[in-house]
Amino acid sequence: MSIKDIQFELCGEQKEVAVIRLSRVVKRNALNDALILALRDLFENMPASVRAAVIDGEGEHFCAGLDLSELQDRDAGQGLHHSRMWHAALERVQYGPVPVIAALHGAVIGGGLELASACHIRVADETTFYALPEGSRGIFVGGGGSVRIPRLIGAARMTDMMMTGRVFNAQDGERIGLAQYLVPQGTAFEKAYALAVRIATNAPLTNYALTHVLPRIAEQPADQGFMTEAMMAAIAQSAPEAKERVRAFLEGRADKVKKA
């Protein structure tokens, strides 16, 4: 299936992995409203067979941010509603039906970093670089970056990036937490896809707990977090699939954890 500026493909024997590829190569995959709304619609209408998704960028860059050529002159109210539209769309990525892995390469700038931060796992190759140039443009992040990015790298580092225009390379980005994996040039998608295939084999309720419940526990006071954890643990372990997986382990039918 192909939507304007997005390629969408179902992969795997059971069509369990969705590959979503930004395809505005001439714009370095810069985001406009139509593309953001298309992402929202994809995640709202994800086929039932899908258990994990990969977001990639066609060409040399993942996403070079907001397409400033389409930036409209808005009053404060219009700007507020526009930002909230982005929030709703990227929330469907973060709190959608499946875990999402971003395959990063080249530019991961501005809105591109906001999109990447809405994904659950980020794999970067050695060409990746990160920036938040909104400060030099006289604007502010509006796609959820002020919430999600500090949770990855801290408010001080985000302030530095926006205030000074600092650019992080792939190695430093992985070191500070912008990506969980760093791989050789040209292999980010391969690694991200392999992770998606592995994640798709997890019990769906466990993946749901990790994508929907764990982030909320992290924001709760400790006593509330412990209670939420207890309830989620009870729900997860009561599922028939969980019981079968534990039984398989106890009976020696499941692989044991081995040193990497």
Describe, in plain words, how this protein is organized in 3D:
The protein is α/β, with parallel strands linked by helices and 260 residues long. It has two domains: 2-200, 2-enoyl-CoA Hydratase, Chain A, domain 1 (Alpha-Beta Complex); 204-250, Orthogonal Bundle (Lyase 2-enoyl-coa Hydratase, Chain  A, domain 2). The chain is built from eleven helices and ten strands. A hairpin with a 2-residue loop joins β1 and β2. α1 (33-44) runs parallel beside α2 (76-94) and α3 packs across α5 (145-153). The protein is globular. It starts with a strand and ends in a 10-residue tail after the last helix.
Q: Could you give the order of strands across the largest sheet?
A: 1-2-3-4-5-7-10
The quaternary state of the protein chains shown equals single chain
Q: What's the helical proportion of residues?
A: 40-55%
Secondary-structure element order, N to C: EEEHEHEEHEEHHHEHEHHHH
Estimate the mean pLDDT confidence: 94
Radius of gyration based on Cα positions: 19 Å
| CATH fold annotation of the largest domain | 2-enoyl-CoA Hydratase, Chain A, domain 1
CATH superfamily of the largest domain: 2-enoyl-CoA Hydratase, Chain A, domain 1
Please tally the helical runs, counting DSSP H or I stretches of 4 or more residues: 11
Instruction: Assign the CATH class of the largest domain.
Output: Alpha Beta
Beta percentage is 15-25%
Distance between the termini: 37 Å
Report the principal-axis shape: globular
- Number of folding domains? 2
